[in-house]
Amino acid sequence: MKLTKHKLGELVEVSRGASLSGQFYAEEGELIRLTLGNFNMNGGGFKENTSKTDLYFTGTVRDEFILNKGDIITPLTEQSVGLLGTTARIPESGKYIQSQDVALVRCKEGLLDPNFCYYLISSSIVRQQLSAAAQQTKIRHTSPDKIKDCTVWVPCLEDQKSIGRILTDIDEKIIVNRRINDNLEAMSKQLYDYWFVQFDFPNEEGKPYKSSGGAMVYNEKMKREIPQGWHCYELNKWLEIKSGFAFKSETYISKGKFKVVTIKNVQDHHLDTSSCDYVYEIPQGMKEWCSLSVNDRLISLTGNCGRLCIVTETDLLLNQRVGLLACNDEYIDYAYLLLSSEEYQTLSNNLAKGAAQANLSPVDLCKNIAVLPKLDVLEKFNRQIKPIVASYIQNEIQIAELTKQRDELLLLLMNGQATVNSD
Predict the structure, then answer these.
(1) Mind giving me the DSSP string for 236-300?
(2) What are the per-10-residue average pLDDT scores of the chain (423 residues)?
């Protein structure tokens, strides 16, 4: 496969988005302004921004800034380390406005295949050049001209199409797995709500308990009715949140055997290890629980306090300010969903203290009271929830494998070490 050297500007047009006045930001509307939050740091791609509520824009916008399905965008500001060079495709026409922090990339017809272009810009070849040329401020920036100035090596158009198709197929499978896991998360939350908030778990006849007239008693601690025979306890009677090890940052390396999990890696119901630091070995004095296992449950104790996720890979070590949920196995899924509930998410935010950065005390959190179901109900719940969790974990493992395969192929295909055939 022959590669030809080009400047990106010979192959693509790159344009900056519109400057949008904040006075027209709104919580409802027809057009959504794109932000850096629309770029998925976990392997690239487009994601809906859930970190803001005023994403709609009600002012006047020129048609050129309203993007179409399949348009390729890339950030011009590095809000998080490694964001420059990330690419995303617009999922729907006529809905999203290109803002000034976002660049639109359009291929010159007959010179560059759009699928190939999507991966070319996110390859290490371009990322390294963008990083080196970025303005060295607290938040680094690039520009359309700097993107166009990057040097690339590309094959003929037919080979570009083959490479783009291979990598796109892998990404589409990753997207399918993520959608399945989104549905599994929704199923888990719905099941928890139905059984332990509405108290419509199946009675002995298989009918919804409360709706079918199941006996309810008023509980003084909870100030509400709960099923007869159930009790309320402080979380610390059956759950402990164990803090991680205080790693020294000078021991971190860029690559090694063990990844160190910190608060930045704990996303909403997802553990993102793509930006982890490494250490060579397990440090002396580290508690056994800080060496994580698949199916462990974590909670963030600093910053965005109360976020939870499931561990889906091995060789991970737990840093301080991230907590491990520790309880008997029959309670772990109930504990995870309880702390994920709207009630406990609000409680976690209210308990978090700190002037510069919020901190959540696991001791304070575990002083709070929760309803504990009868063991026979919990056993029935576990028979339904554990297969859902197992499927979620297996999908996450496959996503990690596919992502690794795609990234390795990307590097080999972009530098000519691997070639494609006509099939």
Answers:
(1) GGT-EEEE-B---GGG-BSS-SEEEE-GGGEETTEE--TT-EEESSPPTT--GGGB--TT-EEEE
(2) 92 96 93 92 81 90 96 91 90 96 96 96 92 80 95 94 94 94 96 97 95 96 94 96 93 92 90 89 94 97 94 96 96 98 94 86 96 95 98 96 90 78 58
* C-beta of residue 297 within 8 angstroms of C-beta of residue 318: no
Rounded distance between C-alpha atoms, residue 407 and residue 312, angstroms: 19
In this structure, are residues 96 and 90 in contact, taking their beta carbons and an 8 Å threshold? yes
Burial of 216 (0-12, 13-18, 19+ CB in 10 A): middle
State the pLDDT at residue 267: 86
For 26, 57, 77, 91, 102, the CA distances from 99, given in Å and listed in that order, are: 15, 11, 11, 16, 6
Paired tokens of 331: 């309670």
Compute how many other C-beta atoms are within 10 angstroms of the C-beta atom of residue 145: 11
Question: Cβ distance 303 to 357 under 8 Å?
Answer: yes
For the chain, the domains span 4-154, 157-204+380-423, 231-372
Q: Please, are residues 269 and 309 in contact by the beta-carbon 8 Å criterion?
A: yes
Query: How many residues does this entry show for the chain?
Result: 423
**CATH 1.10.287 given to domain 157-204+380-423:** yes
CA dihedral 135, 141, 145, 150 (to 10 degrees): 80
4-154 and 157-204+380-423, same CATH topology: no
What pLDDT score was predicted for residue 356?
Answer: 76
According to the model, what pLDDT value does residue 126 have?
A: 93
Q: Which pLDDT score is estimated for 139?
A: 81
Tokens at residue 340, please?
A: 């994920």
Q: Are 307 and 249 in contact (CB under 8 A)?
A: no
DSSP bridge pairs for 39: 46
**CATH topology for 231-372?**
Adenine-n6-DNA-methyltransferase TaqI; Chain A, domain 2 (3.90.220)
CATH architecture of the domain formed by 4-154: Alpha-Beta Complex (3.90)
Residues with Cβ within 8 Å of residue 158, at least 6 apart in sequence: none
